[in-house]
Every structure is written in C-alpha cells, then in structure tokens.
Amino acid sequence: xxxxxxxxxxxxxxxxxxxxxxxxxxxxxxxxxxxxxxxxxxxxxxxxxxxxxxxxxxxxxxxxxxxxxxxxxxxxxxxxxxxxxxxxxxxxxxxxxxxxxxxxxxxxxxxxxxxxxxxxxxxxxxxxxxxxxxxxxxxxxxxx
Length: 144
Description:
Blueprint: H1 3-61, E1 72-76, E2 81-87, E3 92-99, E4 108-117, E5 120-129
Antiparallel strand pairs: 1-2, 2-3, 3-4, 4-5
C-alpha cells in the first residue's frame, strides 16, 4: 500500500468516528428534550390552574355571603370557579376558592383569611394561603 491510500483511510475513519459520536450526542439530547417537554407541560398546566384559582378567589371576595358557621359555596359556571366561605368560632372568615384551567386536572385551591362585614368579605392584606389552615381535616374538605 502506498502512503497516500493510508492517509485517505485514516481521514475517512476519523470522519466516520465524528459522525458516530455526533449521532450519539444528538440521540441523547433528543431523549433529554423529550423528558423536559413533559415537565414543561406540567408546569404550564400548574400555572394555568393557579391563575384560575386566583381569579376564583378574587371573584369569591366580591360575592355576597351569609353569616353562618358552616361552609357555604357559590359557583361561577362560565369559568368553572368554586368559592366557599366558613366562619370560625373566633369570628374570622376563611374563603377557599378553586379553579381549573381546562381538562380533567384537579382544581387548585387557594385560601384567604378575612372578616365578614355585613354580607361582604373584607380580606386581610397578608391572609392568603395555598394550604388549608384549619386544624380539623374534615373542615378542609370543601362541599362540591
């Protein structure tokens, strides 16, 4: 064999190796992007549900409520908002509101402390929560 043929074979072998390594890298990147796509979709759905719950909470704050110690709920059918109010023994009012952006996902519920003045809720400035603050688990189960 001449030295010119050997140099051509080495160059061809290097090109094939670069092609194989590039192929493996692209394959791994494709798998990683596919996995992240589902995470991003779940995060987008969470943000949409949280936004719907915030809207439901704002809607619930504007509704008229009766002064009673059991959960009372109101529904807004166009946007699928659900807001419930409960008066505690201390005279505080707890508003729970949930909304779901679309589809069969579970609704996201937000909670807001306040007081009932007349038939209107006056929400405390720092009183919103993303978990049920009541100690009794049965009271945290909202009527549907």
